[in-house]
Specification:
By secondary structure, the protein is α/β, with parallel strands linked by helices. The chain has 13 helices and 17 strands. The longest helix has 15 residues, at 40-54. The protein binds adenosine-5'-diphosphate (ADP) and magnesium ion.
Length: 398
């Protein structure tokens, strides 16, 4: 996939109506009060919005929220987003009552340069997730240029993320531009050595990432729950740890493939085990592959931490996806924290992908020490898998 895409800076936006796809899929309070519990995604969209408004564009913003499945669900309305966006921008945000209906059309037609309109939840329209050309055409008819800044949604070929680009010139906003530059750069032409740290819960959810990174990394580090499948595959005892028995052959194949390719593959040498999956479980450290029955591995052990931190010291680039342990329990967050700290201390380009990994780095307080934390969970995984992202492929090449 070509990552070198035109951005808002490569086209004339002054006086133009711009359809801007944002990722305003923010978490809302469960009580239906319309309170946004984390506005990070709205704030992340501000640089592109502000730039377009400052340049004299009229911005028709849109986004999905949740999964209304083509029905109008008042609790998934973007009205609270419009209110918060208005506070953050310090200016009015006009809210449309529909996506491409008469209200949206009329408000878009009346929109002046420097003004911003927010359409309703794109998934209130059945055609959105089906990438219906009629819906895409209707959305496109409200603007003269399409700007995509919803990196979290680029792995989906929906009407508002890809379909509209059939009818309008399409470029990226600053969020997508940075994702493409940093992650795309690391995948296509990494500063070496490239170290990939892979963890998280399951081997099965990371096969694509492991396969792709095996082709390009110099070192691969395995941690988290998936490490126990590798351990069991070598005949180790894993007790009650997370184990995907069906993936043991695959794990062995990966070890062999790494050896053939000259990729250094590091596996845990020790592990922190617990007598229950609980924050206050009794715990101890044992050698890898020696977990007694009734115990489960919830973090990498101290020797492994040393080994892994050492391996990233002289890296040129580190790509990290998947926590080293159950970081949600402070007693089992030490491995993840140590790796985050090691990354914060290297001069390497450090890239964090994956929703839980990004949350872990943020929660542990290392977010501002990383080169880049991807704003897309699923999208960043598919990116690291080397898959074509429809919401990126549809943008104009530079
Ligand atoms: P990401 O979202 O960054 O791609 P994953 O979804 O693959 O990451 O994995 C994150 C989850 O893996 C976390 O909720 C974490 O608690 C869990 N996890 C990590 N190590 C273990 C382990 N040893 N046992 C069980 N769960 C684990
Ligand atoms: Mg996850």
């Amino acid at each position: 996939m070509n990552y070198n895409k035109k951005t808002v800076k490569d086209v004339e936006v002054k006086g133009k109506k711009v359809l801007l796809r944002c990722d305003f899929n923010v978490p809302m309070a469960k009580d239906g009060s319309g309170v946004i519990t984390d506005d990070k995604r709205i704030r992340a969209a501000l640089p592109t919005i502000q730039y377009l408004l400052d340049q004299g564009a009229a911005v028709v913003a849109c986004s999905h929220m949740g999964k209304p499945k083509g029905e109008i669900k008042p609790e998934l309305s973007l009205k609270p987003v419009a209110a918060r966006l208005s506070e953050l921008l310090g200016k009015d945000v006009i809210m449309a009552d529909d996506v491409v209906g008469p209200d949206a059309q009329a408000k878009a037609a009346a929109l002046q340069p420097g003004q911003i309109l927010l359409l309703e939840n794109t998934r209130f329209e059945k055609g959105e997730t089906k990438n219906d050309p009629e819906l895409a055409k209707a959305m496109a008819s409200m603007a003269e240029l399409y700007v995509s800044d919803a990196f979290g949604a680029v792995h989906r070929a929906h009407a508002s993320t890809a379909g509209v680009a059939e009818y309008l010139p399409a470029v990226s906003g600053f969020l997508i531009q940075k994702e493409l530059e940093v992650i795309g750069g690391a995948l296509a032409n990494p500063k070496r050595p490239l170290v990939a740290i892979l963890g998280g819960s399951k081997v099965s959810s990371k096969i694509g990432v492991i396969n792709n990174l095996l082709e390009i990394a110099d070192t691969i580090i395995i941690g988290g729950g998936m490490a126990y499948t590798f351990s069991a595959a070598k005949g180790g005892k894993v007790g009650d740890s997370l184990l995907e028995a069906d993936w043991q052959d695959y794990a062995n194949e990966m070890v062999d493939k790494a050896a053939q390719k000259g990729v250094k593959l590091l596996l845990p040498v020790d592990t922190v085990i617990a007598d229950a999956f609980a924050p206050d479980a009794k715990s101890q450290v044992v050698k890898n592959g020696e977990i007694p029955d009734g115990w489960q591995g919830l973090d990498i052990g101290p020797e492994t931490v040393k080994l892994y931190c050492d391996a990233v010291k002289d890296a040129g680039t580190v790509i990290w996806n998947g926590p080293m342990g159950v970081f949600e329990f402070p007693a089992f967050a030490k491995g993840t924290e140590a790796v985050a700290k090691a990354l914060s201390e290297t001069s390497a380009i450090t890239i964090i992908g994956g929703g839980d990994s990004a949350a872990a780095v943020q929660q542990l307080g290392y977010a501002d020490k990383m080169t880049h934390i991807s704003t897309g969970g699923g999208a960043s995984l598919e990116f690291m898998e080397g898959k074509e992202l429809p919401g990126v492929a549809c943008l104009l090449d530079k």
